[in-house]
Amino acid sequence: MTTPTVDTTQELAAFLRARRERLDPRDLGLPPRRQARRTPGLRREEVAELAGVSVDYIVRLEQGRGLRPSADVVEALARALRLAPVERAYLFNLTQQRPRDADQPATTAAPPLAGLVADLSPLPAMLMNHRYDILAWNHEMTRVLLDFDTLSPAQRNAMWLCLMHPEIREFYVDRERVVREGIAHLRAAWATHPEDRALTDRIAEFIARDEEFARLWAERDIKVNGRGHKVMRHPDVGVIAVDFEVLIPLEDPEQRLVIFRPADEESQSAMARLCAR
Fold first, then answer.
1. Which residue among 12, 72, 111, 204 has the highest number of C-beta atoms inside a 10 angstrom radius?
2. pLDDT at 35 over 60
3. Residue-level pLDDT at 100
4. Of the residues 75, 97, 119, the one at which a domain ends
5. Helices (H), 124-235
């Protein structure tokens, strides 16, 4: 027996009906009606009024008549139906639209993730968004890289550090590979978030200020690094090799948890000495 494929038009229709019927009109502050309701939940007329669309439009959507709502209409329907974040994302996926706020990354760490970063000690860990902005870090990461508290918020960016910071520029043994892979990841993020003006401005700044970035950016390599290996020349303890892992939390998919692990016994010993200082 084969599993049926998803008919997104029919699933959209069924999903909208199900979410409309589960709502209690009293919870939305709608006025009571003299005539008894024959079906549970909201009427189509009420959803149409809340979403700012016509009743006929709602009818055609719920009948699966092949409409493809715009991103603005999808957002209005999500608000009208009081969808939870995961349901809102499901609705956008069904309609093959992107939410307007998808290009607005977090600029602060989600508190549970900031707590997780601290709890990961003694492993160095930090939290970033798709722009490579560094949002949270633990003590061990400051010892391996640098004290991020000494930087301005605009400088707390992993790509900026690789390109512009005088110490971090010479930090990686295989610098060109690290920068090349970082740029390939940044290009993928740029294509995924085309309306992120801050990211576009940051890339323009790098192209203008760094010849190496401009050269590698023009090669149009694409790569998303979920894990990898880096070798660093630390000024205090010498060479440290780390394996890194990048994890994306389900609740906060625009944030990325980066964890370093010593790649060998010598690096583990060096990191232990470094973090004990």
1. 12
2. no
3. 74
4. 97
5. 139-144, 158-164, 175-192, 197-209, 211-217
